[in-house]
Prior knowledge:
single chain, about 80 residues, alpha+beta, 3-stranded antiparallel β-sheet, two-stranded antiparallel ribbon, 2 helices
Amino acid sequence: PITQVQAVYPRRALQRGIQGYVLVEFTVDQTGAVRDPIVIEASPEGIFEQAALDAVVKFKYKARVINGKATTVAGVQNRITFEII
């Protein structure tokens, strides 16, 4: 990614000391923007998914160029890790 936004740590998880990750899959369009993100895997479930999706839609990628033309790329995955430092 050209621009990768840090996910906001859910306050409830932070207060309880919960750490985890979310694997998100999405499409990168011709402009490099993220479209249609979905959660593939999350651990623990039900805590970090929304924060990860909110961050991923703000990512910006360099568009893939094939034969001089920007192309949409489906099936791009990114793992967002939530760690208390």
